[in-house]
Amino acid sequence: MVLLDSSNFILRLEKIANAAKKDSSFTITFKRYDGHDKPVPRAGRPPLPKPDTYMCLIRAQSKSQKISTVVREEDVPTMMSMYSQFMKSKMDGLKRVKKVKSKAKAAKG
């Protein structure tokens, strides 16, 4: 998995979305991240220290490509604005769901 900065993450995410538009899909996950890369210690050992501020870990995956970024608390508004622009530009391929009337409603009206 490749750890990128926020702006490069959005650029790579656009490339993944364009590639996935043709024949596959991609997923994006958000997770609270405390900065610890080590697992929780066993019983009897001192616990890991609590962070002052939490960060956000964002991961994207499509087929065999995996990218991720860590967003600090002060960078969240700028990252979310870039992410919302990305979503608005790439959500044009959704198909409209046709509503099916039930027979009881069709007979009444």
TrEMBL record:
Matching InterPro entries: Signal_recog_particle_SRP14, Signal_recog_particle_SRP9/14
Gene Ontology CC: signal recognition particle, endoplasmic reticulum targeting
Main location: cytoplasm
Protein name per the record: Signal recognition particle 14 kDa protein
Compartments, record wording: Cytoplasm
One term of GO molecular function: 7S RNA binding
Quaternary assembly: Heterodimer with SRP9; binds RNA as heterodimer. Component of a signal recognition particle (SRP) complex that consists of a 7SL RNA molecule of 300 nucleotides and six protein subunits: SRP72, SRP68, SRP54, SRP19, SRP14 and SRP9.
Recorded name of the encoding gene: Dwil\GK22455
Keyword Secreted listed: no
Keywords: Cytoplasm, Ribonucleoprotein, RNA-binding, Signal recognition particle
Family, as annotated: Belongs to the SRP14 family.
Pfam families: SRP14
A biological process term (GO) from this entry: SRP-dependent cotranslational protein targeting to membrane
Species, as recorded: Drosophila willistoni
Its job: Component of the signal recognition particle (SRP) complex, a ribonucleoprotein complex that mediates the cotranslational targeting of secretory and membrane proteins to the endoplasmic reticulum (ER). SRP9 together with SRP14 and the Alu portion of the SRP RNA, constitutes the elongation arrest domain of SRP. The complex of SRP9 and SRP14 is required for SRP RNA binding.
